[in-house]
Amino acid sequence: MTSLLVGIDGSDSSRRAVAFACRLAEESGAAVHIVHVIPWSPYSFTTPAENDHRSASKAHEITAAEQQIMQPALAVAREFSVTPTSSVVHGSPADLLVSIGAHDTTSQIIVGRTGDSRIKQVLFGSTPVRLIQISKTPVTVVP
C-alpha cells in the first residue's frame, strides 16, 4: 500500500494540503501520515543547565503543537473516510520530511504553500522550495 506524507505548519494552506491528501487517499486507497516538524537546530552551544531546559522545552513544544496544529489538521481529516497517522517531531522541516518520505511506500509528499513573509523567504528559504530541491519523492505544493 502506498502512503501520502503531509507536512503541516498550522496555516490555511496546510489544512488545504490535508484535505487534498485525504481526497487523494479516498480515491487511491493510500494511507495518510500527517507530520508537523518543529524547527530545532541541534547545533547550538549550550551548558548542561541549558540542555536540561531544552529537553523540557521540547516536550512543552510537542504538547502545544499537538493541540494547536495537529488537532485542527486531524479534524479536517475526519471529514473524509481516511484515518491518518500523525506525529510531531523536532528538526529541520524539509530534511525530516524527505527522510520520512524516503520509505518505499511513500508515493508523494504534500505540503501547503508557505505563509512566511517575503523577507523571511529570501533570508531563509521556504520549506516547499527546499523540498522540491532535495526530495527524490514527488512533492505537491497546495496553494
UniProtKB/TrEMBL annotation:
Which Pfam family, any one of them, does this sequence belong to?
Answer: Usp
Q: Which family does it belong to?
A: Belongs to the universal stress protein A family.
What SUPFAM superfamilies does the annotation carry? Adenine nucleotide alpha hydrolases-like (SSF52402)
- Record's PANTHER family? STRESS RESPONSE PROTEIN NHAX (PTHR46268), UNIVERSAL STRESS PROTEIN UP12 (PTHR46268:SF6)
- Name assigned to this protein: Universal stress protein
Highest taxon above the source species: Bacteria
Task: Pinpoint the UspA domain residues.
Answer: 3-143
